[in-house]
Amino acid sequence: MFTDKMSNVARFAFAVVAVSLATLLRLALAPILGQEVPFIVYYPTVVLCAWFGGWWPGLLSTMLSAAVAWVLFFPHQSSNAASGLTQLVQLTVFLLSGGFISLLAENLHRARNRAEESKASEQEQREKFSVTLNSIGDGVIATDSQGRVAFMNPVAVSLTGWKSEEALGRPLEEIFKIVNEQTRIEAVNPALRAMREGVIVGLANHTVLIAKDGTERPIDDSGAPIKDAEGGVIGAVLVFRDITEQRRAERERALLAEIVASSDDAIVTKGLDGVVTSWNAGAERLFGYSASEAIGRPITIIIPQERIEEERLILSRLRRGEQIKHFETVRISKGGGQIDISLTVSPVRDPEGNIIGASKIARDITARKAAEEALRQQREWLEVTLSSIGDAVIATDTNGAVIFMNPVAQSLTGWSQKEATGRPLSEVFHIVNEQTRVRVENPALQAIQSGLIIGLANHTVLIAKDGTERSIDDSGAPIKDRKGNILGAVLIFRDITERRRTEEERSRLLASEQAARAQAEEASRAKDEFVAIVSHELRTPLNAILGWAELMRMDNLDAAQIAQATESISRNVKMQAQLIGDLLDISRIVTGKMSMDVRSVEPAAIVEAVIDLLRPAAESKSLHIQAHLKPEGAMISGDPNRLQQIVWNLLSNAVKFTSINGRIEVRVERIDPHLQIMVRDSGEGIDPAFLPYVFDRFSQANTSSMRTHGGLGLGLAIVRHLVELHGGRVRAESAGEGQGATFTVLFPIRVVREEIQHGEGADT
Questions:
Q1: Measuring CA to CA, which of 227, 314, 326, 563 is 20 to 30 A from 204?
Q2: What is the C-alpha to C-alpha distance for residues 175 and 139, in angstroms, rounded to an integer?
Q3: Under 8 Å CB-to-CB from 631, ≥6 apart: which residues?
């Protein structure tokens, strides 16, 4: 057993040492043994060397022992022939015995080594078998001849749910419980059947393994008998695997195959050489070639000649592992017709990941292309139409972002189509209320929210990008598809600035015309009243004059009556002259032919003279005239006679319209840069509603006053015109009827350096 562990040198050295030790021992026993048994200690030595060293060390120890014994322990001086022969026989027997012992030991060594090698090999095979069974992906269960579990690998432990130590010795039916997936009937165990029949048995389809915890798994398995050397069955081995994923993959493959077969799209596979390897029903319908016609032929049978380079580029990209998605191109059918398709091409790889071909999905988009072309033409027509109309148009998406603007909209907003696209409508279409300046809610956005057509409120102003403001009129409407879903909104608006201006001008002209008509009607009415009054006022003094003239012709009047007649005729003639003078003045004013004799005038003197002239009339009504004439030497430029006429009309009106015991105040004072003449009375006053018209021609507060007080209503109109001819202004004030009235005249203070004389009838 040590020979395997000892080197050749060591084995031979061991033989030498053993022989040396045996020689020493024989020498020590020489006094006892003498020379009778020379090899007594060498036999065990040879056996020992042969056992531990094998053939050659045994043979070496035999030769060395024979040589040493021959030299040391044989009596060579004996002349006895019989003794010599005996020694020779002893030597020969020793040599033969040593050789036999060495040979026997060598054979024993070899037999032992073979046995150990066989055992080691068997152990190694067992270990390899165990490792193999434990490392394979299938479950393995081995049984003895009674069908009891003798071995389970880890996969079997995992699938059955039984630990190895729990399962050992239990019946296989208890550990490996299988049923039919559909009928739920217990299935025949293939291992037990294999053991009974002595043949390999496969498992039926649709078999389910029920684990210890109740988990069910579809499995695929087989059972085989384990036989001894004589062919007797000593057990069985069961090999099985979980095919859940395989089943799922098969279902997916079947589903994929069904999808490919039933797809309306053409699904084609080809090799990297461009040769068709599969061709589904969709491809048959689309291109007209049957599968048998297409498979094995180059894919170029459906590619137009002018697009062959396109296929080369696709193959080049496929070899780089790229995928081509939704590539729109043209292919040709078996009949030669062109087909618009959308092409998706993906590389096909083998299990090692190498690209071996391509899968193509082709979808017929001919109808879509035709629809797109029709839509493009319609959109083009719509854009041309929208671009040519006079109104501005803006379209938005559902989020209110601008997607279209016609040229008019671009012009009015100041935003180009490129700038505005994608921006919020509120940014591009900025509108505010014209009066409040508050931002107006956008009608297009309201239309999107409500789904209704929304009109814009009046007085809306569009503020352009550069700040320009325009009055606009517009409306917003939702854009809907056939199902009524809102896709966006369209806003239509127009610049109504000119229209507004025209409308305002028309309104102004209409108001002006209406005012002119009313004024004309009022003037006509006033004229009619004036004619009636003039007729009355002229007839009244004429009637008096004619009456007194007829009486004077009768010669029966005394001196007092004649004096009365003369005085009445004179008074009525003066009244007639005054009326005619007023009429002539109004005529001159209207025709612009009022004559003026302008010079430096002291107004205070003129006012004082008029007061003196009117004092008798005032005293007849017990009126108190209070004069404040303090002009501080102020002079004005004017016509003395016209200035006197102004003061006369104002004061005579005050006397006329002031009741008995009334009060009249006259003031002349300098208020730089003007000279002011003010006449205030405590008379009948003026209705506030009439004040704006008090200086109009032919106007009095009411016509009854003309009947009561007389006159044509021209006095104040003449006053206003004469004051204005002098560069001044006049105003009337009254707190109301019965509250008196105040008339104020302002003249500019200036002295005429050169007196200008105007002849009678000269124009001013």
A1: 227
A2: 12
A3: 602, 603, 604, 668, 669, 670, 675
> 3-state DSSP call for residue 749?
coil
Residue 56 has pLDDT above 50, yes or no: yes
Distance in angstroms (rounded) separating the CA atoms of residues 287 and 83: 120
Distance of CA 205 to the CA centre of its chain: 57
Are the C-beta atoms of residues 421 and 394 closer than 8 Å to each other?
no
Domains of the chain (ranges, CATH numbers): 8-113 (no CATH), 136-248 (3.30.450.20), 263-364 (3.30.450.20), 371-495 (3.30.450.20), 497-582 (1.10.287.130), 592-748 (3.30.565.10)
Question: How far, CA to CA in Å, does 120 sit from each of 123, 124, 252, 275, 703?
Answer: 5, 6, 50, 58, 156
Pair type for strands 402-405 and 392-397:
antiparallel
Tokens read off for 587: 């005529």
The answer on pLDDT for 533 being more than 80 is no
Exposure b/e, 111-133, CB count within 10 A at least 16 = b: eeeeeeeeeeeeeeeeeeeeeeb
Helices 81-135 and 42-53, packing angle to 10 deg:
20
Phi, psi of 355 (to 5 degrees): -75, 120
**Rounded CA gap, 745 and 720, in Å?**
9
Q: Are 158 and 137 in contact (CB under 8 A)?
A: no
According to DSSP, the residues that pair with 486 across neighbouring strands are: 480
Give the tokens for residue 531: 């004619």
The alpha carbon of residue 628 and the mean position of all alpha carbons in its chain are separated, in whole angstroms, by 86
> With DSSP H G I counted as helix, E B as strand and the rest as coil, what are the percentages for the chain, rounded to 5?
50, 25, 30
Contact 204, 222 (CB under 8 A): no
* Peptide bond between residue 673 and the one before it cis (omega within 30 degrees of 0): yes
Structure confidence by residue, pLDDT tens digits, 398-446: 888 998 888 988 988 999 989 989 999 888 888 888 888 888 887 878 8
At 486, which helix (H) or strand (E)?
Answer: strand 486-495
Residue 722 is which amino acid? L
Structure tokens at 602: 């002291």
**How much of the chain exceeds pLDDT 90, in percent?**
12
Query: Which distant-in-sequence residues (6+ apart) come within 8 Å of 636 by Cβ?
Result: 600, 601, 603, 643, 675, 726, 747, 748, 749, 750, 751
Nearest residue to 742 (alpha-carbon basis) of 658, 660, 675, 681:
681
Computed from CA positions of residues 376, 382, 387, 391, in that sequence, does the dihedral angle turn out positive or negative? negative
Instruction: Determine the Cα–Cα distance for residues 441 and 433; give it in Å rounded to an integer.
Output: 10
- Pick the closest to residue 105 from 162, 54, 29 (CA basis): 54
The torsion of the CA quartet 97, 101, 106, 111, rounded to 10 degrees, works out to 130
